[in-house]
Amino acid sequence: MKPSPSLAALLGVGLLVSAVGVILSTPTPARGRESPRIAQLARAAEWGVWKIRQGRVTSLDELAAEVPSFVHRGRPGVTAGPTPAPVRPHFPAHARKPVLYLYSGERCRSVGVRVRVSLPISGSTLYYPNAVATSTGLASSLEFRGALEPARRAHDCLPSSARPARAPRGHFWRALRRVPASMFTSGEESERFIFYEALTDLRTPFVFYGAGEHASVSLRPDLRGTSGREDVVFAVHGRRYRRITPTGPAPTSLFEGEERPLSALMAELREQLMARGLSAPEARSLLDTWRPDLVEASGDRRIYFIDRADYDAMLPLTISPRPRELVRVGMVLELP
Predict the structure, then answer these.
(1) Cβ neighbours of 110 (radius 10 Å)
(2) Whole-prediction pTM
């Protein structure tokens, strides 16, 4: 299914904004005995895509029409607490299809997990599975509590009774489920990922100038000169694209460099996603979900990635137990 055009930003993504931990209760060990082993969370990987179209923010109604009917829609309830300083968003944007995959480090037993998503900008949300939504002043959060099954069970383990809800045939939701992550169960709802859509404070790594054949780009001033960076913009024009790498303060033309056939773009994007830490199945879930917008749509577009520090600042994430590896990859699809 083709995601509807959005304006400001849709974060397509990886899923989850902030996570809080999971605490497993275990009996107090008898004196002289070895303490029980702490449950393991091997990996957490999240991707998200922000879609920007001519400054118009896609409404939650439009976004809700794209997700299965079992996805929850709600507005966080207000709780008592101090009012924080006013939020001045750099670029208000909807977090679009953020998807968080969790991988248990256990062989047979389930692991209790608590994931909290901190949203600096309060507002209505879409989320799945069950979560507790709260709001304090101008900020809000989503907290997911549940049990995580092993990613792969050994043949001598008891079978799991967790089953995800039925998604429509051909829906992008099914592509998200192909990733071999652990099943997360909250109450009566089970899914292979955590999903939400909400307002975020999007900070892009680039500054764009002009339009059409006069369009150019430069790296955001505070990022210039940062060592070890490779900030890439894929500028698509019809059925061709160029790979632009801005470095200095001077704007770089979006029509500079070798022109390549659009058929090669998906392979380049896959390489970029995996270089940023996604596994092959995780990268494929993003590309399959967004293929209509990336390579099948007509017109010009720009594709680039969000700096990890900006991602963490926009969507603070805490997971307990803390995973041994945490990957977060944000991509922006901009239609000028």
Answers:
(1) 20
(2) 0.81
